# Entry
Amino acid sequence: MSTVILLAATGLGLGALYFLVASGLSLIYGLMGVLNFAHGSFLTLGAFAGWEVARRTGADSWWTFLLSILIGAAVGALFAAFTEFVLIRRLYQRHIEQVLITVGLALATVALFEGIWGTDPVFIQGPAWFKDTTELLGARIPNDRFVCIIAAVLVLLAMVLFLKRTRYGMIIRAGVENRSMVTALGIDVRKAFTLVFTIGGAAAGLGGVLASHYFGYVSPLLGGSLLIFAFIVTVIGGLGSLTGAAVASVAVALLQQFANFYFGLGDLAVVLALALVLLFRPAGLLGRKS
Amino acid sequence: MKPILNIAGLNAFIAGQQVIEDVSFSVPATGITALLGRNGVGKTSTIKAIIGLIGRTGTVELDGQRIEKEETHRIIRRGVGYVPEDREVFSKLTVAENLKLAERDAHPRRQLVEELFPDLVKRSGQLAGTLSGGQQQMVSLARALLNENKVLLIDEPTKGLAPKIVQEVADTLAQAAATVPILLVEQNLQVVRQLADGAVVLSGGRVAHTADSAADFLADEDLTRRLLGVHDDGAGAAAPAAGSGAGEPAPEVAR
# Structure
């Protein structure tokens, strides 16, 4: 029983990280039709920014951790806004070019990060509480899992509130459904594009800082390795659906953890789940039908 | 009186294919101008080209100002209300959210909309996707009427609606036309006869005929059979063109 609880808690922690990446991916694709292969770079840069803050201000302090989260999210947001404004904006409706430029940016930023911080993983320290465990139904759960889960739940709530309660949230929800009709109401939908990129980048940057604590290190490849699963989550959840991304993040991470522990086939199980969803529910669990 | 909309040499393209060619006509500053033609002749494309939803070349003047180089949202903000074919309400937003999103004036005409569409007030919290076709059309019309516009572009507002709802929509359009000029794409010739002042008829992506009086055009049996494939006798029945299916029930709309 304690093993199941431990696997579930670890899976939920991993699912939280997937959600932080997938939420932005899903909204970006849903609103703009852009498959953003550079999204992992927002995460990696956020993680390195968080690590730099921790390194310079004392890694074991809670204040440092909170500051690193803020800086990581801000750096991710700025990088994402810059990417949308400078690179993507000229390429709407040109999907091949979008893929080429975001793949190119992902590759270039990995090389850039390796140039700045080296190719080896950089190990990170957090508040001492992170390394402790909390007993839950007989299982000893590493505390950093709870931090990831709480952060992802807060981000989900904040995004839902933003989407439901603000005018820009309304524009984004409408734009995910029918972008040209939003324009035909006299709304400059490009502002919403930049905002969605910025929000997605902030979530990814925050996810980067949390991922560095979850895995215990930062590396230039951190974002890329999480991005693959975030894409799978986005497709399974339904492109453009925030709730779908949340549900699929948890489902994929739990499946991965359990399949890995009992059969050693976590990644294969996830790919099989993706194949089944594509075969029987191509729009995803909560996606709109095309 | 100067026309509110002046279109000259308009060409439009969808996915690289030209869909209308050298279309020129004017929309007077009052009343309803019907844009007519068989299916697929480019009526919807003309409307979309005017507001830049599809690629276009040529000249479009709104109230004397050239707008053909402007982006769609800027054209709309100059005072163009657009009611698309098939309503295009945001199905996952509530009725109230659909309307709120359309408000672009500092003082939107909520009271007018509430008077014209009292049913929408009752359904303000309902998801627009769960409304009937007629109710969705009311939302679509309400979005355009919320703001002060110089012209309304309305694309097949009665399509797929029950006869009773068609009359409600027609009455609403008649009320709207008292304050703002309308360019109306409409297949239901009885509605055209009831509402339209002038008419522009497209054929094969070009303007084939313009008429100062839509009623006179519809009364011309040869012309309507040739350009619309149908003739409306004004008594509620439309007879098909010769060779379009003798012995079959007469279609109610131009096809």
User: Anything to note?
Assistant: The domain at 5-88+149-240 of chain B is CATH 3.40.50.300 (Rossmann fold). Residues 163-177 of chain B form the longest helix (15 residues). The longest strand of chain B covers residues 17-27. Chain B touches chain A through 21 residues (CB under 8 Å).
